[in-house]
Amino acid sequence: MSLDFTARPQTFATALIGARLSLDGVGGVIVETEAYEISDPASHSFGGPRGRNLIMFGPVGRAYVYRIYGLHLCLNIVCGTEPGGAVLIRALEPDQGIDTMQERRGAQATTALCSGPGRLCQALGVTMAHNGLPIDAPPFELVGGAATPAMLVGPRIGVTKAADRPWRYGLAGSKYLSRPFPRR
User: Fold this and answer.
1) CA nearest 143: which of 34, 16, 43, 6?
2) What are phi and psi of 166, to 5 degrees?
3) Do residues 149 and 138 make contact, with C-beta atoms less than 8 angstroms apart?
4) Considering its fold, how many domains does the chain have in total?
5) Per-residue pLDDT tens digits for 16-36
6) 95: three-class secondary structure by DSSP
7) In which domain, by residue range, is 150 found?
8) If DSSP codes are grouped into helix, strand and coil, which group holds residue 106?
9) Closest to 34 (Cα-Cα) out of 93, 91, 84, 81
């Protein structure tokens, strides 16, 4: 399935579930995402372009990489018809370059390698040098999934503003999610 970078962040976030993402041949299947848009007070783009969020106002299909808590990196994909939209890649099911991931993260079970945005970036080898690069060209590879999988929907994690918006999406039944979705 082809991925449409001009889709609204919520639509693009769901389309990414089941897609394959890799960086320099290390990666797997995306199992969890979160959507953000310019009108969203939890988004880095809220309030307009400045400093680190400038990538969110440029061409779609670019990696937006930022540091959180001064420690961990997060990988987003810029999307939408309006500037300021992006989708955070929260987790993936690793299946390519697992030995490399385990070296980068320390020998861990595959379920823990990419289960969270910071872990995912460390396992894939994402650095600030990747900020602004096209997500569908080397060193990245992004390929849409073959079908629309069964999906979970819930509130985003780690935000205080607009925390109730159900803009977190996950692959139903996946043991690679960053944390469980709330029961309905």
Assistant:
1) 16
2) -85, 65
3) no
4) 1
5) 999 999 999 999 999 999 998
6) strand
7) 9-171
8) coil
9) 91
The DSSP letter of residue 75 is E
* CATH number of the domain to which 66 belongs: 3.10.300.10
Which residues are paired to 153 by β-bridges?
A: 169
CB–CB of 101/114 below 8 Å?
A: yes
Tokens of 16: 């990414």
177 domain-assigned: no
Tokens of 40: 């969203």
Crossing angle of the two packed helices 98-105 and 117-124, in degrees rounded to 10 = 110
Three-class SS state of 132: coil
Counting runs of H as helices and runs of E as strands, what totals does the chain give?
4, 8
**Residue pLDDT, tens place only, 24-73:** 999 999 999 999 898 876 777 667 678 888 888 889 999 999 987 767 99
* CB-count burial class (<10 Å; 0-12, 13-18, 19+) for 166: middle
Question: Does residue 154 belong to any structural domain of this protein?
Answer: yes
